[in-house]
Specification:
By secondary structure, the protein is an alpha+beta fold. It folds into three domains: 87 residues, Integrase, DNA-binding domain (Double Stranded RNA Binding Domain), CATH 3.30.160.390; 81 residues, DNA polymerase, domain 1, CATH 1.10.150; 163 residues, hpI Integrase, Chain A (Orthogonal Bundle). It is built from 18 helices and seven strands. Helix 4 runs antiparallel to helix 5, helix 4 packs across helix 7 and helix 9 crosses helix 13. It is elongated, with a radius of gyration of 35 Å.
Amino acid sequence: MIFLTDTIVRNLRPPAKGAKIHRDADAPGTGVTGFGIRITAAGFRAFVLEYRSRETGDQRVFTIGRFPTIKTERAREKARNLRAEIEDGVDPQAERVAKRHEATVHDLADRFEREHLPLKKPSTAESYSRLLRLYIRPHLGRMRISTVTQADTERLCRAVTEAAGPYQANRVQAVCSKLFTSALRWQLRTEVHGNPFKRVERHKEHARRRYASAEELRRLVAALAKHPDRQGADAIKLLLLTGARRGEVLSMRWGDLDLTAGTWNRKAADLKQGRDHSVPLSPPALTILSALRDEQTANGKRALGEFVFPSAVSTARHLVEVRRLWRNVVKAADLGDLRLHDLRHSFASQLVSSGASLALIGSLLGHSSPAVTARYSHLFDSVERDAVTRVGAIIEAAGLDQPPTTPVIPLSDQRQKNNKPLARRCRLS
């Protein structure tokens, strides 16, 4: 051993391979037990302190700093302070070892998918897994759970906004918030660090008022009739005919359908509003479902499977995505910015046009409160305007003693027209 100085450290020869530690001479009043300089074959030099952990008994090497960034005397002084802490029972390497073995966001996401997602509806679990796979794992996966900061979360949200838009960024942020709330509950992250997604500002979302016009409906139905993916096309037709949400139709079960009575009896566990919901099915919807039933029981099959739209490749065992098909249909039918969820809005607009009340619309769509249905109230403007126009024409005609300029539909005929089943007025060809 030699008493280390800057000159000696600078002139020490690197080993042929690996690394070698030159220990400092334990000179009375100056040396520090375990202090030395580590030199690699590449010539890198770093001051270290070798010691044994009192808690575990493990032999450990603590890196103090690289030479010549830190000089010998300064490194020796740091080593002396560390040695005093070790004598008091402190393990200076323990925190670094814990950091090295700390779980990553990948590990957190694995546990989240294994323990939390099975408690969710299959469609929700599938959506969460998709967002984890596409955005969260690639951006945060390799980071230690405790090292994720609000700045990291903001960078993630900006990246998702640029790649997929503000609405998708909000969905990713919501999943991340649940992910790190779970980390706190599982004690994988301390309350001191908190949830880094709690204070990230979300994009403002505005309710869309996009509905398919009569001409767009005609082009949509024609495009669906020509599309080669008959299963996906039938699913989209049922979205249009029932006003149900995408996940509700794609996960539709034969056991929930009564084709004789013409009803779809949905379970609370499968629905967003969290309560059982039964709705009547129109003749065109029943025609589609009957054809699917006959097709799936043909060729000697004994019984139907569980799902109306089964899938051999999905872990949910049913069709979970029709986005690609929808993009092709929108392009073929020239539907512009019409989204798949807009079919639900279009269903509501058809109900309004037929004279249905907000209460009836909310019942058919399965809304949990009247406030949710109120977003369709503006659609009644044109219906009400037509009504007062007819009344005005009647009064005007009475005063002038001549036939009204606006055609007047007898009340009895109007009631009869409004009471016809909706399916007859929006029959799919």
